[in-house]
Amino acid sequence: MFENFKVPKELIPSDPRFGVGPSLIPVEAVEKLAKTGHELLGTSHRKEAVRKVVKEMQDGLRTYFKLPSDYEVIIGNGGATLFWDMIGLGMVEKNPYHFICGEFSDKWFRANKNIPWLKPDAKRVEFGQGLNPVAMAGHDFLACTLNETSTGVMLTDLPNVDNETILAIDATSGAGQIPIDFKKSDLYYFSPQKVFASEGGLYVAILSPKAIERALRIGKDNSRFIPESLKLSHAIDYSKQNQTYNTPAISTIFFLNEQVKLMNKLGEEKVVSEAKRKAELMYGWAKEKPYLNAFIQEQKFRSLTVATIDIEEKYKVDDLAAVLRSQGVVYDIDAYRKLGRNQYRIGMFHNVSYENLEKLTQIISLAIESEISL
Ligand SMILES: Cc1ncc(COP(=O)(O)O)c(C=O)c1O
Q1: Which of 8, 37, 185, 312 has its CA 20 to 30 A from that of 293?
Q2: How far, in Å, CA of 208 to CA of 218, rounded?
Q3: Does the C-beta of 252 come closer than 6 Å to ligand 1?
Q4: Helix (H) or strand (E) segment spanning residue 359
């Protein structure tokens, strides 16, 4: 199916990258990195030149998110997946409670289930439904996901928790475009290869004083074995000195910093309103076309970063995605494999322009409507 479809010249997007991560890194940022020549790549991450970039990025995130001054921005190697293990070992006391609405929130739960002394519990909803976290008496750690990348649901409300509870948010694919009240959050973390347009392999975490205190206390508890490389207390110490515990990819930090600077030129409010405009475009398109359906039924949970759009079964999305990729026009719009749906999952990240998203909708519609008229 779709093998004879050719994208008309006027609909070719200026950039083919619509994936939900890794996401579009601006070519200008890559060129800017190349221009740093001898000064960054291949130099020590313990020296001033690299530490300056790290500090600029940390300060830039403080500005962007308007963080309270006693919160820390920490970084380390391994991305969100490794960070699940770090916080399971170094932040959770004994009985975390997870809010599960997709594959990533479930993976986080499974990471904690693997730790012998933890007794995790969870509330689950069917994939495709949204789920807001609520306060849970008797649990020392609440785990929720700002944006479920697998299904395209975002959360819309956070609870107030007491002094004995850490509210932790996996913000990987929402950070930057789905705003939260940081005063309610103790631990907010993300990998930067989504809205923040960098490479994978790094985690960024924003910790409240309560979370820092918990991590440092557990770090000193010798009865609990935590491998050195996974000690959150090391990550806190080194991040305060604008460093990572072990050697990072400098390019990842560089791209992240460039994106933070770019987004700070607009400020969070403008970035979010642009995200809303793109979301209206995508969900409006899904509503308008009889062969499309937004996967997320309840409007308020529809993501501002990842649009999941079901397509009538008889139009084979994989065939069309392959044709578009082979023409170099559109990359990586496939659904999350395990969902097994005839669906496109499209990144609406900051660097994916409104105009290109509009072209993408027109390309898909044209391809399907050409099949209808055959
Ligand atoms: C919500 C969410 N959490 C965690 C991860 C894992 O991130 P990483 O692959 O950087 O470890 C992802 C990856 O896409 C994600 O979308």
Answers
A1: 8
A2: 16
A3: no
A4: helix 354-372
Tell whether ligand 1 has an atom less than 6 A from the beta carbon of residue 145. yes
Query: How close is the Cα of 170 to the center of ligand 1, in Å?
Result: 8
Distance 367 CA to ligand 1 centre (A): 32
Question: Is the pLDDT reported for residue 374 higher than 90?
Answer: no
User: Is residue 75 scored above 80 in pLDDT?
Assistant: yes
Q: Looking at domain 9-25+268-372, which CATH architecture does it have?
A: Alpha-Beta Complex (3.90)
Hey, what CATH topology would domain 27-265 get?
Aspartate Aminotransferase; domain 2 (3.40.640)
To which H or E segment does residue 98 belong?
strand 96-100
Assess whether the previous peptide bond of 8 is cis (omega < 30° from 0).
no
Measured by CA distance, the residue closest to atom 10 of ligand 1 is 79
Share of the chain above pLDDT 90, in %: 97
Separation of alpha carbons 356 and 262, rounded Å: 19
- Residue 193: pLDDT over 90: yes
Residue the block writes with tokens 């900051």:
350
